[in-house]
Amino acid sequence: xxxxxxxxxxxxxxxxxxxxxxxxxxxxxxxxxxxxxxxxxxxxxxxxxxxxxxxxxxxxxxxxxxxxxxxxxxxxxxxxxxxxxxxxxxxxxxxxxxxxxxxxxxxxxxxxxxxxxxxxxxxxxxxxxxxxxxxxxxxxxxxxxxxxxxxxxxxxxxxxxxxxxxxxxxxxxxxxxxxxxxxxxxxxxxxxxxxxxxxxxxxxxxxxxxxxxxxxxxxxxxxxxxxxxxxxxxxx
Length: 236
Description:
Blueprint (H helix, E strand, L loop, with lengths): L3 E5 L3 H13 L3 E5 L2 H10 L4 E5 L7 H9 L6 E5 L4 H9 L4 E4 L4 H15 L9 H7 L6 E4 L4 E4 L2 E2 L4 H12 L5 E2 H8 L8 H18 L7 E4 L3 E4 L3
Parallel strand pairs: 1-2, 1-3, 3-4, 4-5
Antiparallel strand pairs: 6-7, 7-8, 9-11, 10-11
Helix pairs in contact: 1-5, 2-3, 7-8, 7-9, 8-9
């Protein structure tokens, strides 16, 4: 079954190049020219990834991303004519998976689409022995990881995490006590860590801590800050 891409771009010449490249690479696509049309299409259909223009006529592309992120972790690639560092940081911190600056090569964009999909696809659940499954599903663990479903539970409660929050907490939780530098965490969580800023890691850790507190207000913060270095998860 071919993967479906939602394209939200108001400039026909750019959209035609994008959709032609997607079709050549055997993707299905739906093209919308406004943010509202894109959101309506997303609510009514299934898409594996969205390509969002930041400068849409009726709504900022970042606002579209914020609306999608309320209930979905669908991968999102931003298109923009702006190349400032703050725009890249805002896009990534809001949950974008990649950021492409106009003008760009359609071939480069489809390569990025493939790369993001490879990193974000949820693998089919594997058959495991009953003993291993019981261990994996142990609900009383402080942080329980289910990599097949890309889920993390905290004190038995499922955390609603963005893709980057999941990847950061996964890296930390799989090696309790290990101190990770911000650069090491960026390499674990981002497809192209050189395009992200170290303060982006701090922003995601902040939202992670808020979600952990919300899930279990009485528990101690499991994430430790190592000033000047990075972060670790407490050994329990």
